[in-house]
From TrEMBL:
Domain RNase H type-2: 10-200
Family matches, as HAMAP family: RNase_HII_B (MF_00052_B)
Family indicated by similarity: Belongs to the RNase HII family.
Organism this protein belongs to: Pedobacter agri
Record-given protein name: Ribonuclease HII
GO biological process: DNA replication, removal of RNA primer; mismatch repair
Upper lineage: Bacteria, Pseudomonadati, Bacteroidota, Sphingobacteriia, Sphingobacteriales
Keyword Membrane: no
Cofactor(s) the protein needs: Mg(2+); Mn(2+)
Reactions mediated catalytically: Endonucleolytic cleavage to 5'-phosphomonoester
EC number(s) stated in the UniProt entry for this protein: 3.1.26.4
PANTHER family: RIBONUCLEASE H2 SUBUNIT A, RIBONUCLEASE HII
Amino acid sequence: MLLSCFQEEFLEAGCDEAGRGCLAGPVFAAAVILPKGFVLEGLNDSKQLSHEQRDLLRPIIEREALAWAVASCDHEEIDRINILNASFLAMHRAVEKLHTRPGYLVIDGNRFKAYPEIPHTCVIKGDGKYLNIAAASILAKTHRDEYMSNLHADFPHYNWLSNKGYPTIAHRKAVIEVGLSPFHRKTFNVSDPQLDLFSKAV
């Protein structure tokens, strides 16, 4: 069972990101402050939920949270400052957008660049331990999925409607055959899917 928050002395925002491992598109981050005693059946790490479950939970989180915000860093920023720093910057932007300032941040993962004047704690697999991080993971994931689905209409050969920019074999094959789109991260290597088949054979 997930705990509501990491500590209760200060008003706490849970933070998480989505899209770090993608070949294309932005990295999205969310910050969520939940009310004390918040309970939502089915709320869990977004990776443990289906697309349909995440879409059902998102409007409830957005309606019932004390405050929430979603922000991103685009592919050009990712190429310029690297994906780790872009993930931190997207989280900072999400925190900046909160209409209620938190007194504490709890971050999913093992590293974070400190946000000015707000203490934080990093929690490995925190999205499976704390409800506020789980809520942030769902908002970051659903907002990013929506963004990539909207891009799909203009770039159907990459099948972003299905893979959302992640390096599936079909996505990598399309990049090799068609080339990069304007939304691909140029600093990310796209290996030949045939190499995967070869490595498994040996």
